[in-house]
């Protein structure tokens, strides 16, 4: 038999991709330069990333809270305070929304400015928004012909905008290490080494009597590792994540045979949602590891996607064996929850709980 040419070492430190594989599977040395993706600051590095429901809600609460406290100084009764707060809100609400809208639309050019320029834009925009909100409120109240008293609202808008911009800066600085930590945890939980070895052994067992099936297993494995090693996108579609999870479970079904029953209930409309990459793979891996592997009789996994109230909902349900598996560290669940929070803030939901003889994970993301 002719000698086979030596296979390239997949864990060689010379190339970046295998360096990531070495870290994510626990082989070799740390090699942070190869595995750590450049952390993405919000909105391509812009502090003006206010295009999120959570930021909008916090901004509205902050401004109206400041307004509620401010009108206390001139109110002589509760009814007077309510009237003054309502009048102030008629100017504050459009002013805040205008500031957020312009900041969101111009986040890239504004974010490219020097820090002093960013401060100037934020404060000037706050002054303009405050004055515009006051003029709009006076016009709506039929007082447009009166001399516009815009100086005080403009000054208040500038001051509140400065406070908002300072908070946005602190938020961006806080998200940067959190994003880096979440990405490192993502790399560490992508593909565990035991799965690699089990899959290769399965493929070797199939090579002689079912080479077509062995080829399919290796193709699925290659796709999983291609994404695990090279995927640097900040987000992918839910449909892509489902396809990757299907490849993973197809490999596990070859290994477990009839012990693993998988049900897919997929809504094509839900697949358009954007999610962090490799979001579902660690969840279905957990389902196999803790729900199927410990049970001699096997079990079932059900993956369902659907659209409800303009949001995509994903549920992963696996049966729980009578004999509990060895408890895990919870890295996968914490990692998924943290990356969803970083990407969608309060617009996303994540819930994991045991219900009788099943374990359920449910994810909700905006469409």
The domain tally reads 2
Q: Outline the low-pLDDT stretches.
A: 1-44
Number of strands: 7
Radius of gyration: 27 Å
Assigned CATH superfamily of the largest domain: Histidine kinase-like ATPase, C-terminal domain
Task: From the 3D structure, determine the CATH topology of the largest domain.
Answer: Heat Shock Protein 90
Q: How do the strands line up in the largest sheet?
A: 2-4-5-7-6
Largest sheet: 5 strands, mixed
Query: Order of SSEs, N→C?
Result: HHHHHHHHHHEHEEHEEHEE
What's a quick, concise take on this entry?
By secondary structure, the chain is α+β, with helices and mostly antiparallel strands. The protein contains 13 helices and 7 strands.
Question: Would you kindly provide a written description of the structure presented here, covering whatever features stand out?
Answer:
It is a single chain. By secondary structure, the chain is α+β, with helices and mostly antiparallel strands. The chain has 2 domains: 42-178, no CATH class; 189-366, Histidine kinase-like ATPase, C-terminal domain (Heat Shock Protein 90), CATH 3.30.565. 58% of the residues lie in helices and 12% in strands. The chain is built from 13 helices and 7 strands. It has helices at 16-24, 32-35, 42-45, 53-70, 78-105, 107-111, 115-140, 151-188, 193-207, 211-230, 238-256, 281-292, 331-344; strands at 236-237, 260-265, 274-275, 299-308, 311-319, 349-355, 358-366. Helix 8 (151-188) packs antiparallel against helix 13 (331-344) and helix 9 (193-207) runs antiparallel to helix 10. The longest helix is centred in the middle third of the chain and has 38 residues, at 151-188. The protein is elongated and about 85 Å long. Mean pLDDT is 77; it is low at 1-44.
